[in-house]
Amino acid sequence: MNWRFRMKLKVHTQILAAIVLGVLTGLILGEKTGHLKIIGDMFIRLLKMIIIPLILASMVTGMVSIGDIRRLGRLGLKTFIYYMATTILAVSVGLVLVNLTKPGIGVEMQVKSAADLSTQEAVSVVSIIEDIVPENLFEAMAADMVLSIIFFSLLLGVAISSIGEQGKLLVAFFESFNAVMMKITDWIMHLAPLGVFALMAYTIGTMGLSVVRPLAVYMATVILGLSIHGFVILPILVRTFGKYSPTKLIKDVFSALATAFSTASSAAALPITMDCMRTNTGVSNRVASFVLPLGATVNMDGTALYEAVAAMFIAQAYSISLSVGQQLIIMLTATLASIGAAAIPGAGLVTMVIVLRAVNLPLEGIGMILAVDRMLDMCRTTVNVWGDCCGAAVIARLEGEQLNQ
User: Fold this and answer.
1) Mean pLDDT of the 280-308 span
2) pTM to 2 decimal places
3) Is 32 domain-assigned?
């Protein structure tokens, strides 16, 4: 059990305790919890503070770690296309379900200022594409244009990788920069229990237990979406393109999935995942050693689906109507943000902030969803690892390998 997993487990335990204490405090103090709001607001401001540098550092480092795109060849191209396609499918499932169930309707949260409301009332596909490419990088950073920063970061990472020896200094710089940002994020995550306590106490104190039912529907929506993606879409892909029995594959990698569920960590499950795929399914070491570690870094189907549903839930809770264009922004941001998610401690929380900022949703809404985040974290991590396993089986078959049937 590595130190990062122990830290994550400790933080999760503290957050669960903070949620319980926050609920009790809110019920006891009621409206008097208003003075606690400043603590929650400061925690949210800390998260806002690190968004842009964290995106830049993690995205560039993630792309550099892949290596020169031109040298990845056929295996790399197939893997990249598969991972991006399945993540988009996962987000699409989440958006369809959350628009049908509408778990946030009736919560009636209040924004603290008009600035919290999204000003993008009519967003076209053309404007979305145009906004991806910033006219001025520094203006984009100042305006929190998340998609623009993600695009530039990915482009910069690819460019650094492609120039070989000349890019070594930049590689070292961004790796150091990323390590520093991860350390700052570690510090902020140590404050998460205090921030969660304040946000939860204020939410319950001002709204009472009326938020419990919408949270239950929200949780059910996420789990249903993960189930559809994990038990319907991915098995169809495995059967169609991998020519492999999904039922047998689940049995082959069950220990990896159990590890992912219990630890809520794709990295912790990676050694077991690789062993299961090589030993039980017959995937070659060449494919497994490339596809699976890359998947643990960039393939976050479950996380992306969860973030899309959570963003829509928060929008509904604040009575903010999001257009199709804005929901497309959520899809793009959740998909692209998943590339750097694994490198971020407390990844779900930080990348959720990135997605919310992309469509100008109130970050205070995070306080609601943290109440059920631990269970959903376990479920979405399991789907993440299951997606990696399915990807390895599909890519191996596309590479002409004969798997154990």
Assistant:
1) 86
2) 0.79
3) yes
